[in-house]
Amino acid sequence: xxxxxxxxxxxxxxxxxxxxxxxxxxxxxxxxxxxxxxxxxxxxxxxxxxxxxxxxxxxxxxxxxxxxxxxxxxxxxxxxxxxxxxxxxxxxxxxxxxxxxxxxxxxxxxxxxxxxxxxxxxxxxxxxxxxxxxxxxxxxxxxxxxxxxxxxxxxxxxxxxxxxxxxxxxxxxxxxxxxxxxxxxxxxxxxxxxxxxxxxxxxxxxxxxxxxxxxxxxxxxxxxxxxxxxxxxxxxxxxxx
Length: 241
Fold this sequence. Notes:
The protein is mainly α. 79% of the residues lie in helices and 2% in strands. The protein has a two-stranded antiparallel ribbon. Helix 5 (131-178) runs antiparallel to helix 6. The longest helix has 56 residues, at 183-238. It is rod-shaped and about 150 Å long. The model is unreliable at 14-30 (pLDDT under 50).
């Protein structure tokens, strides 16, 4: 490093100062040489020590600059963005699952559609309901139950199809997280892993909703059959048969 020669110069200055100290002690305050040259060993030693202190200060400043440069490099790494994103893949998988739910047959995932169906079809036969209407309602209920189970199997197929994409995304995110060079990249990889987990939870929620819908419609159909049976039984006795 650039500061190494300065450290060596500093050590050399200190060694010179320590070497001069025992020599100058027994000498007089100054010495007279030829040509009028005067040598003051005490002043010389002080100058050497002053120079050593200045070198030490310069060395400290260089060390501070090196620390600041290292800190800036680390900050740049921490601010580097993760060069890997699974957002588009996750959004596409969620849209496919949502589309399967939107394609629900006969009775959609809508409060208005459900209320209308249970008002006209699943409320059971009454004295004013004709035999032909009861048969028609029974046929419609059966078709609706079959369609609901078909919808459930479609959602199941979609969820299973998303597993391969989820596995690929997970492998990529784990690899990116392990090779992250800074805090931002690690945080972004972690956020994308959470997004992947949310997508999988959304798939499971959609599957549970489809299964519950099919089971609820089948239970409503069974209830309708029982109500229609009681009405037919009542009519049978009312006719005196």
